[in-house]
Design a protein that fits this description.
The chain has helices at 60-73, 113-122, 137-149, 154-161, 165-169, 171-182; strands spanning 3-4, 16-29, 32-44, 49-57, 76-77, 80-81, 89-93, 96-102, 109-110, 127-133, 186-187, 198-200. The protein has 208 residues and is an alpha+beta fold. Strands 1, 2, 3, 4, 5 and 12 form a six-stranded mixed sheet that branches. A four-stranded mixed sheet has the order 7-8-10-9. It has a two-stranded antiparallel sheet with strand order 6-11. The longest helix is centred in the first third of the chain and has 14 residues, at 60-73. It is elongated and about 70 Å long.
Length: 208
């Protein structure tokens, strides 16, 4: 499963950032309205590590900064075989349902919206995806991150079941996995990371 990668100040220059959504919310009080902002941020190093975070503040730059900090603290490592994912995965988060499938080299990232931001920043180059249900970017990002954490390589599954890779995927595919491992193209994380959290001042009356 995906694991939280260590994050230090030296990582800042290697991590790309993307604002997936920016919402303004208002609370009606006796003296009028109080506005605040929430920013959904995705960060990644393009080499198998990606994170997401939600920042809230009364000013846009501060909301984005908080979102970036949260995302960097919650980066996970995505298991990859070459330039794609090890296997098909489906996941549901709230009203969001997503499907991700491995793709052959050269396919590219067939995805859109919030899911595409997570996939591109993670470093996955070839994948087929479909977003079902709601288009709410927060739920879609959370579903995508959680789905990536459930990915396991053939070797991990074989170890858990006490079998060989050949027994899990067959002789032909097992050779592909061995070749990818020999070339250093298989990344296998150790343990799971918690889901992205929100940071900053709560936005009263905020709606997702």
């Amino acid at each position: 499963m995906g694991s939280r990668g260590p994050y230090t100040s030296s990582d800042r220059s290697d991590v790309g950032e993307r604002v997936v959504s920016l919402n303004r919310v208002a609370k009606v009080v006796k003296g009028g309205r109080k506005f605040s902002f929430s920013a959904l941020i995705v960060v990644g190093d393009g080499n198998g590590r990606v994170g997401a975070g939600l920042g809230k503040a009364r000013e846009v730059p501060e909301a984005i900064r908080k979102g970036v900090d949260v995302a960097k603290r919650n980066m996970i490592t995505v298991p990859m075989v070459g330039t794609t994912i090890p296997h098909e995965v489906r996941f549901k988060w709230g009203a969001a349902r997503i499907l991700m499938k491995p793709a052959a080299p050269g396919t590219g990232v067939i995805s859109g919206g919030a899911m595409r931001a997570v996939i591109e920043l993670s470093g996955i180059k070839d994948i087929l995806t479909k977003s079902l249900g709601t288009n709410n970017p927060i739920n879609t990002v959370r579903a995508t991150m959680a789905a990536l954490q459930t990915l396991r390589t053939a070797q991990e599954v074989a170890d858990l079941r006490g079998k060989t890779v050949e027994e899990i995927v067959g002789r032909r595919l097992s050779q592909v996995y061995r070749n990818a491992a020999a070339e250093g193209k298989i990344e296998t994380p150790d343990d799971a990371a918690p889901e992205p959290e929100a940071a900053g001042e709560p936005a009263p009356g905020a709606a997702t």
